[in-house]
Structures are given as C-alpha cells and as structure tokens.
C-alpha cells in the first residue's frame, strides 16, 4: 500500500477529524456517488454500487493512514532532534514544534523535514539544499517529499512497500508512473524485489531474470553507474512493463552500500524522456541509496532474498582446502561509508608472495598497502573492486603482479581468479615459475610444429607418449603406444629399408639416427613423418632408454612436390620462350641483317643500320625494304609492327612482302598503304603496325611519300636539317577503310634523306617534339662525314630509353 497525500499537505494528526483531503465532508457508505452534489436528485445506487463506493472509501482511508504514518515518522525524528538540542521532554518538544511552525507560517510537517535536514547533513539533505538553491521558485515541499519517502522506506516491511512509498512520495511529482526495485544475486541474476505502477501480471512475468539476459537494469549493474534511456523502444532492451509503455523513458541506477552493488532502482516515465538537470539526477541517486538500505535489511515481498553471510568460517575453511595460493578480502570503508580498500582477512597455507614476504607480514594489512602498484588503471585492484560491486567473477590465465621490494618493482606472471562470496572477495593466484612456463611453451611449440615426443624404457619396456603423438598416429589416448620395434608394421612397405637402417643405427650401434617414412594410420590416412631419436646409455655403455620425437612433415613434403613440379613447368616454359626468341631472331636477321650496304640504286646511294633490342626476349617487328620496281621507280619503305616475339616477326615478314608485291602494280604510295591496311586487317591475326612508303623517280628526281602513323623522314640539305610534313594517315590495322595522303619532294644533288623507326628517338620521360629536335641537331653535327658514318653517329648519340629495335635508312642523291 502507498500514501496518496500530496507533498505539502499536513499529516492526519495535524488536521481536524474528518477533514481528509480528496474526500467530501460527510462521506458515508450511504452517501451519493462521489462527484455528484448532494441533493442533485441522482437515483440511489444499487447494493453493488454502494459496496464499490465503500471499498473505495476504505482504500482512501488506508492510504491516508499510511501517509499520516510516514508524516508522523518525520515529525517524531524532528521531536527527537529538539529533545536533544533543547534538553526538554517529548511533550515540550511537540509544543515547540507547533509554536515554531506557527511563527514560520509553515505546516508542522514541513518544519519537521527542515529540522531533520539540518541535523542529518546526509545525502537527502544535500539533494534538497541543492535543488532549492538552483530552482527559480523555492519548493519547500521537496524536503517533505524526500523525508516522507525516507520515513516510509525505513518503516516498510519489505521492498514492495519501499517501491510504493518512493513512487507516491518522491517519483510521482517528477512525472514517473512506475518503479521497480531489483535485487542482484551472486550469480548476476536479478530478482524483482518490489514494484509499483505495473500490472500485477506483468510483475509476475518479470519476477526473475536469469544471468546473461540483457536488460536496462543489467546495464546499470555492469556499468556501475546510472543509465538513462530516452526511449526504451529505441534501446531494444526488454524490461518489466515494456509492452504497456514501449516508447517511454527509463533510468536505471545501481543501489549499493560501501562500494558493493546489491540491487538496481528502475524508474519508468510514460513519455520519451528529455535530458534531466543534475539536481534531479542527484535526487534519484539518493533514492537508490534508500533502496539499497531496504534490500540489505529486508527481504523481497514473498521471496527470501539471498543475504550475504556474516560468518566467514566456511569461506576460510574453503580457502584452506585449496591447492592454490588464496586470499580472503573484506571491504574497507572510509569515514563517508565509501569503499576505499580491501583488508586481507585470511591467507591460506599455500600462499606465495611475489616479493617473497611471509604470510604473517601481509595478514590484516590493506591490499593497496601490501601491493600499492595494484592500483594502476585496469590492474588487480580494479578487477577486485568490479567483482565486489557486480558479483561477476573474473578469470585471467596470465596477469602481471608487481610488488615493491626495497622500492624496487618485482613483477611476476600469475593466473588470477576473483569471485565474490557475500560481502567478501576470494582472490586466488598461481604464480607461474620458470619450469611451468617453459613446459607450457614447449607444449605449444609441439602443437604448432605437429611434433610428438616419446621415451621408451629398454629395461622395463614402458613407453611414454605425449598427447600430440597419439594424434599423429590417429590413435585414441587410451590406446597402447607403439614401440619402435613395431614401427615397420605402421609404415608403407616401400619404406621398410629406411626404417631398418634407422633401427639398426639406434638400437644396435647406439647412436642418434633419423628417418623419413610414410605412416599409415588406422583411419586410412597416410602422413609423411620424420622420426629423430637418440639412445640413453649408462656409464658402461648399456642401453637404458631411447627418446625422440616424431614430426608430421606432410605439408612440407607436398610443398616440395608442388615446388618441384612448378620448377619443371617453369624450366619448360623458359625453354620454349628461348626457342621462340631464337627462331624470331633468326627470321629477323635473315630478312634484315644488322648492317647492309652501301649499295647504289640508279643515282641513289642507300645505306641501312639495324640495331636489335638489348634483351633477347624483346625481338621486335621493325622492317625496311629497298627495291627497284619494273617501272624504274625505287621503292623505299620502313615499318614497325607492334609487339615483340615470334608474332611480331612473322607479321613483319607478311607486311614487307605484301608491300613489295603491291608496289609492282605501279600505284602511288598512298594507294599502296591503303591496300596494305586491308592486308593487315584481313590477312594477319590482330596485327597493328606503322609504315612509311616512298617512291623515287630517277628521271624527274621527284620523291612521292605517304605515312601510316609513322614518323616523317628527315631531309639534310646544305648542311641544315628539317623534318618533312606530317601527312595524314592512320596506323595499319586500325580500320578497314582508311585513306592516306601523299607529299612530293624534288631532291637535289647532295641531299640526304633519313627514314627511321621510333626506337631511335622515343623516351619515357620526354615529349616527342623534344626527341625530334634532338635528332635534327644530332644529324647536323655529322653533315660533313660519309653516309655510313653519319648513320653510325645517329645510333651512337641516340638517347632513346625504350629498349626497342631501331632501324635507320640513309638515302643520298649523288
């Protein structure tokens, strides 16, 4: 039951009899329906209606009685304060309270709350004072509400009554409609100790929350702070009443005393919750402390809550029976009742201090006094404090423990176990010595390396295997180990000779030996194994035992097989590539030798220089041709097929021969390139190329020329050089239908015409115009030398860096 008296109303003992708030004067079981004025002519209620009105009136009286009792509790506290300060009796204190209330123009209940606040100086008084200082309009009823809630909580018989008192007296004025008080169990479970404002059926469904279920209350328990949820639906966490008010706001506050959390206070609002001012947050935290006091001293309604044991005899006996070092820690509170440290209450006989101190030195001291470096953030003290607050145990296989020995930090690695037992904490650690650490490292190394160790006693026949060796053999751990003499029966028959040599060297010649064999397991799997063993001899050279290890090298074996196969395929591929390059180079040199000429054609002197690529595998498709046609004209051509290798060489042969045959028709250079483009598109396999075609008429000394994406010729006349115009023309093989323009040039005696491929001028780090200008400058520098030396000079001073074939044709008119 809870009180319905509004904050600021006088208690029942301060009002005239029958003047109950909220009920009309003279309300009797036979009175009209509440809400209708007397004498309004309303029909008389049937018996059922009168019974309902009577029940409602009795409920109201009960609530008023509870409110009056809560108010009397505050007034009695104030009377006690006056008795102590005024040195008077209780009757005089009551008269003084009424007199002071009349002089202050406040109700006795409000004055009593103020007197208690001034005398207590506790959390509630602090919340009330801060609220009044930061509120624009003073609200003296706040102190009454909080002190009334405190009085009701202290006088309540169970946590259910505490929840009802908090909701009615302190939370309803804040707009809250429901409240739940959860009790935290030692296994992280939550029990609904009390609730108000929720339907009875909903509260029954949430009577118990098992460990591990995510709820708003568990968030506050694990995070050890107040958690605000503006909307419960948006958080996605279920809780009591989430179906009735899905979009409402909530706050969950851990309730604890002395640093130990023993429950959670959960408050529900019907609407989404806006950010609350700090004064409201502090008020709710103060109410959570009231809940903690109630949970610690009173059971939940209808449920016997697990109370922490006060006698440590059983825990101490348990600690003494452990085989690991263990400490029993008790919380140590400061003057304000807050957790400050943990006192070492008991140390078992197996305790080993990392600093080597005896048990008697540490017994009874504080944890941070004995191990001050445990206070580092995230260290041992933080783990113990969290376990004590939440009840959630902590385990760690490896954790650093640092102790000070003569101001020198000494660190040891230990396995840690921390658990809470009532209000005490059990701390267990096992310091890992060097032997245990090395054994652990060896075990992990054997597991990662798939190594199994064994030892076979030659005198008793006893065989010892580790777990990894049973796995290698495919045998269960309960199977008898296989002796070395029985090894041939588990190996592939083709490996019998190798195993025989291994056994003879080990058992008869008494020297270390090793062997690789194929192990045939009972499950039909064959593994490649390497065994290494050594004899153990006494002083007289007699065999005492053999010990060694098996290693699974299956992955290494198959890797070596795959690598060998890859090497074979790579060698075959390299051989094929070298053969193809050799054939391509032979084909290229057979058609175009590196040096040709000079030779005379009519009044022309022609010389050719061809420089292959520096790398043999980069056999290119550069080509040139000079031939006298049946018409008497001289065909001068040069080209470059894209790509390298045998494909480029064969493409070069096709285009060179096709152009020579087409030139016999007497067509001009533009038409010849158009026909050659058709040949490239239809008679070759995806070949593209550049070409320069020129026809010289000895009678008129006229040179007609056309280009298909190739660089134009260079003319040397009178010691000066100049590049011929860029006549339009696509590269060969780009389009089926392409047209090529022609240019005419009348040569003079002494003129030199240079035709070349791009390998002479191309650079990766410069533009084509810069390369052409450099070529013109280089050609002018060798104007006074013979034609052959001029071509050699061009190749020597070429700054091309593309590592491509280079072909240069020099034509001099005599």
Automatic annotation (TrEMBL):
Going by the entry's taxonomy, the superkingdom of the source organism is recorded as Bacteria
Q: Which InterPro entries match?
A: ANTAR (IPR005561), Bact_Sigma-Reg (IPR052016), GAF (IPR003018), GAF-like_dom_sf (IPR029016), PAS (IPR000014), PAS-assoc_C (IPR000700), PAS-like_dom_sf (IPR035965), PAS_fold_3 (IPR013655)
- Compositional bias of kind Low complexity: 20-30
PAC domain location: 513-565
Alphabetically, the GO molecular function entries are: phosphatase activity; RNA binding
**Location of region: Disordered:** 1-42
Q: Which UniProt keywords apply?
A: Hydrolase, Transcription, Transcription regulation
Residues in the signal sequence: none
Compositional bias annotation for Basic and acidic residues: 1-17
Write down the SMART domains for this protein, in alphabetical order.
ANTAR, PP2C_SIG
The ANTAR domain, residue ranges: 55-116
* Name this polypeptide is given: Antitermination regulator
Q: Which organism is it from?
A: Actinomadura craniellae
């Amino acid at each position: 039951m809870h009180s319905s008296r509004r904050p600021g109303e006088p208690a029942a003992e301060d009002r005239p009899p029958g003047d109950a708030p909220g009920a009309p004067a003279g309300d009797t079981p036979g009175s009209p329906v509440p809400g209708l004025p007397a004498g309004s002519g309303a029909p008389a209620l049937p018996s059922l209606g009168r019974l309902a009105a009577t029940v409602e009136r009795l409920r109201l009286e009960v609530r008023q009685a509870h409110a009056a009792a809560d108010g009397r509790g505050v007034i009695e506290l104030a009377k006690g304060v006056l008795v102590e300060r005024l040195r008077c009796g209780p009757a005089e204190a009551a008269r003084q309270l009424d007199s002071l209330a009349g002089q202050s123009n406040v109700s006795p209940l409000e004055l009593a709350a103020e007197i208690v606040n001034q005398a207590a100086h506790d959390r509630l008084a602090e919340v009330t004072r801060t609220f009044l200082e930061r509120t624009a309009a003073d609200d003296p009823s706040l102190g009454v509400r909080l002190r009334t809630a405190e009085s009701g909580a202290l006088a309540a018989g169970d946590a259910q009554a505490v929840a009802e008192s908090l909701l009615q007296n302190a939370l309803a004025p804040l707009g809250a409609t429901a409240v739940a008080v959860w009790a935290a169990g030692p296994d992280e479970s939550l029990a609904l100790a009390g609730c108000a404002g929720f339907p009875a059926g909903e509260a029954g469904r949430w009577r118990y929350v098992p460990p591990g279920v995510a709820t708003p209350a568990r968030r506050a328990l694990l995070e050890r702070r107040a958690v605000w949820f503006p909307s419960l639906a948006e958080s996605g966490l279920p809780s009591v009443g989430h179906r009735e008010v899905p979009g409402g706001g909530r706050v969950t506050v851990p309730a604890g005393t002395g640093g130990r959390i023993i429950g959670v206070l959960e408050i529900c609002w019907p609407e989404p919750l806006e950010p609350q001012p700090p004064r409201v947050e502090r008020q709710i935290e103060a109410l959570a402390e009231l809940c903690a006091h109630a949970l610690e001293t009173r059971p939940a309604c209808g449920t016997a809550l697990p109370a922490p044991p006060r006698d440590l005899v059983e825990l101490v006996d348990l600690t003494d029976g452990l085989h690991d070092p263990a400490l029993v820690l008790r919380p140590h509170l400061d003057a304000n009742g807050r957790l400050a440290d943990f006192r070492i209450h008991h140390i078992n006989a197996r305790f080993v201090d990392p600093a080597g101190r005896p048990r008697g030195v540490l017994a009874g001291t504080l944890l941070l006094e004995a191990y001050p470096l445990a206070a580092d953030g995230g260290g041992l003290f933080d783990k113990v404090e969290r376990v004590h607050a939440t009840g959630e145990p902590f385990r760690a296989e490896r954790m650093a423990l640092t102790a000070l020995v003569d101001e020198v930090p000494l660190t040891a690695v230990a396995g840690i176990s921390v658990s809470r037992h009532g209000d005490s904490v059990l701390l267990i650690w096992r310091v890992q010595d060097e032997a245990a650490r090395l054994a652990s490292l060896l075990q992990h190394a054997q597991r990662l390396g798939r190594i199994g160790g064994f030892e076979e006693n030659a005198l008793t026949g006893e065989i010892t295997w580790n777990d990894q060796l049973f796995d290698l053999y495919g045998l269960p751990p309960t199977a008898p180990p296989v002796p070395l003499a029985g090894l041939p029966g588990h190996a592939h028959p083709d490996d019998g000779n190798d195993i025989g040599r291994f056994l003879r060297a080990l058992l008869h010649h008494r020297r270390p030996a090793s062997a690789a064999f194929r192990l045939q397991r009972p499950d039909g799997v064959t593994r490649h194994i390497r065994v290494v063993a050594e004899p153990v001899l006494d002083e007289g050279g007699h065999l005492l035992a053999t010990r060694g290890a098996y290693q699974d090298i299956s992955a290494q074996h198959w890797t070596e097989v795959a690598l060998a196969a890859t090497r074979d395929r790579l060698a075959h591929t390299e051989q094929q590539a070298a053969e193809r390059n050799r054939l391509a180079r032979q084909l290229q040199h057979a058609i175009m030798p590196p040096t040709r000429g000079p030779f005379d054609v009519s009044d022309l002197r022609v010389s050719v220089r061809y420089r292959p690529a520096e790398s043999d595998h980069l056999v290119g498709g550069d080509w040139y041709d000079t031939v006298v046609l049946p018409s008497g004209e001289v065909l001068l051509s040069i080209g470059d097929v894209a790509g390298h290798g045998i494909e480029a060489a064969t493409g070069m042969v096709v285009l060179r021969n096709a152009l020579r045959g087409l030139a016999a028709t007497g067509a001009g250079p533009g038409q010849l390139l158009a026909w050659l483009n058709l040949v490239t598109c239809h008679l070759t396999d995806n070949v593209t190329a550049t070409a320069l075609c020129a026809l010289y008429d000895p009678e008129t000394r006229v040179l007609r020329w056309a280009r298909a994406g190739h660089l134009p010729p260079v003319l040397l006349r009178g010691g000066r050089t100049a590049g011929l115009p860029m006549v339009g023309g696509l590269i060969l093989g780009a389009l089926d239908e392409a047209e090529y323009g022609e240019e005419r040039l009348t040569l003079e005696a002494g003129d030199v015409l240079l035709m070349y491929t791009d390998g002479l001028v191309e650079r990766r780090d410069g533009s084509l115009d810069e390369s052409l200008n450099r070529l013109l400058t280089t050609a002018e520098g060798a104007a006074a030398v013979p034609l052959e030396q001029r071509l050699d000079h061009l190749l020597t001073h070429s700054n091309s860096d593309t590592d491509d074939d280079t072909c240069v044709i020099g034509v001099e008119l005599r």
